[in-house]
Design brief:
The protein is mainly alpha-helical. The chain is 70% helix and 0% strand.
Length: 115
């Protein structure tokens, strides 16, 4: 299985921004060069395991949270992420989101079976 470095970079960027960190700050915390963080976030470079671990530690997340797009057994990561995203929603927002999810799931399954 090939790692999706672009997806890893997108997750790192999103987590960094959610925590209000600049690339410079993340680089300092994770002992990386700022340019390396930029390359990683754009998926323009492959990152080593030590680099991945140091970035995960700096962001306070597990490595599987950064790799979940490349790991078939990462259901719990996606479920946790969904719970985190939904945690501050109002009743109405949750209702609308749930209906959207149901419709999306139904349409995805129709597409899957029609292929």
């Amino acid at each position: 299985m090939e790692l999706d470095y672009q997806a890893i970079g997108v997750r790192i960027r999103r987590l960094r921004k959610e925590q209000g960190l600049t690339q410079q700050t993340l680089a300092e915390i994770s002992n990386q060069e700022p340019s390396n963080i930029s390359h990683i976030e754009r998926g323009a470079t492959k990152l080593s395991l030590p680099t991945l671990v140091s970035i995960a530690n700096a962001l306070g997340v597990t490595v599987d949270e950064l790799l979940c797009d490349s790991l078939p057994a990462s259901r719990s990561v996606f479920e946790s992420e969904a719970a985190r995203v939904l945690s501050d929603c109002s009743h109405l927002e949750l209702k609308i989101i749930m209906e959207t999810i149901r419709t999306l799931k139904e349409n995805l399954r129709k597409l899957k079976f029609s292929e």
